From TrEMBL:
Binds 1 zinc ion per subunit. This is Adenine deaminase. It comes from Cryobacterium roopkundense. The active site is at E194 (proton donor). Residues 6-321 form the Adenosine deaminase domain. One of its GO terms (biological process) is adenine catabolic process. Keywords: Hydrolase, Metal-binding, Nucleotide metabolism, Zinc. Belongs to the metallo-dependent hydrolases superfamily. Adenosine and AMP deaminases family. Adenine deaminase type 2 subfamily. Zn(2+) binds at H11, H13, H191, D272. Substrate binds at D273. Its EC number is 3.5.4.2. The record marks H215 as: Important for catalytic activity. It comes from the Bacteria. Gene3D superfamilies: Metal-dependent hydrolases.
């Protein structure tokens, strides 16, 4: 039932799909020496205490991604796994600065990922789009430069987002970047309310004018914010297993998903960084089903929320329902 439920994934970092086996293979192919004795030693690093402890490993492992081929192999591997999970449409995040900051050309990462995405419908039956996410713990001026270059390259992106270490890096710092994106007709989303306070969710809405919030689970701490999100049908791309593994919640049993649904929020279920959290989209749905006893209509409703929240024309939504 879970694998046949048609699914839409709206919060997935392509870099977060880099599996340990592929890290070892790419290191070998590119002649890169890794600071791990072997695959088991690498696997032992996947214990996180918070967002930053995860980001440290996530960024370090990216050193193995060098060529366009590496980026397209990474993307194809995700699409193959997503197909098995029943994903029919995916709006995929990529962090260009995580690559340009280590000397990889912007065109290398963008072309590598988008080449694999271009074949996705025929190869895997998954429609896709690409959203570039800017690292909020790097200067906004750098994000502006990268966005300007993406626009001049006419990169095949539909939107921009904001991610990386949240606390101390409020959305207000990125007003200019998001204004430029909007002026070019790009969709806008932002991570907010994962570790950061509800105030960051308000800023993302009011100042960056985003149309979806990534995570957003701390919105529940602010009743007026919840009312606003409900009234305006602002989708939240929630990632249950990510929240557990990054210790935003202690256990899946403690996840606020049932409370969010009870308040009438437009919640979608997503995998975030499945290679790091050990759970792809089907695993997230299965975990919720087992933990909260969600029945088939409740699971189908979550899937429909994602279809509604996707950046698609109405004619493209119909086949996903
Ligand atoms: N939060 C912030 N930044 C990220 C995440 C996340 O869950 N995954 C990859 N970059
Ligand atoms: Zn994320």
């Amino acid at each position: 039932m879970i694998t046949t439920l048609p699914k839409v994934e709206l919060h997935l970092h392509i870099e977060g799909t880099l599996e340990p086996e592929l890290i070892m293979q790419l290191a070998e192919r590119n002649g890169i020496r890794l600071p791990y004795a072997d695959l088991d030693d690498l696997r032992r690093q996947y214990e996180f205490t918070d967002l930053q402890s995860f980001l440290n490993l996530y960024y370090a492992n990216l050193d193995v991604l060098v060529t366009e081929q590496d980026f397209s192999d990474l993307t194809r591997a995700y699409l193959k796994r997503a197909q098995a999970a029943g994903v029919r449409h995916a709006e995929i995040f990529m962090d260009p600065q995580a690559h340009t900051s280590r000397g990889i050309a912007l065109a290398t990462c963008v072309n590598g990922v988008s080449q694999a995405l271009a074949d996705s419908v025929t190869e895997f039956g998954i429609s896709t789009s690409l959203i570039v996410t800017f690292l909020r713990d790097r200067p906004a001026a750098e994000a502006l430069e990268v966005l300007t270059e993406l626009i001049s390259l006419d990169a095949p992106i539909i939107g921009i987002g904001l991610d990386s270490a949240e606390v101390g890096h409020p959305p207000i710092d990125f007003v200019e970047v998001f204004a430029l994106a909007r002026a070019h007709g790009l969709e806008c989303v932002a991570h907010a309310g994962e570790e950061g306070p509800p105030e960051y969710v308000w800023q993302a809405l009011d100042l960056l004018k985003v149309s979806r919030i990534d995570h957003g689970i701390r919105s529940l701490e602010d009743d007026a914010l919840v009312d606003y999100l409900v009234q305006n049908e602002i989708p939240l791309t929630v990632c249950p297993f990510s929240n557990v593994r990054l210790r935003v919640v202690d256990r899946l049993e403690d996840h606020p998903l049932p409370a969010m649904l009870a308040r009438g929020l437009l919640v979608t279920i997503n995998s975030d960084d499945p290679a790091y959290f050990g759970s792809y989209l089907d695993d997230n749905f299965r975990g919720l089903q087992q933990t909260f006893g969600l029945d088939a209509p409740a699971m189908a409703a979550l899937s429909r929320n994602a279809v509604q929240a996707a950046f698609l024309a109405d004619a493209e939504r119909a086949p996903l329902l």
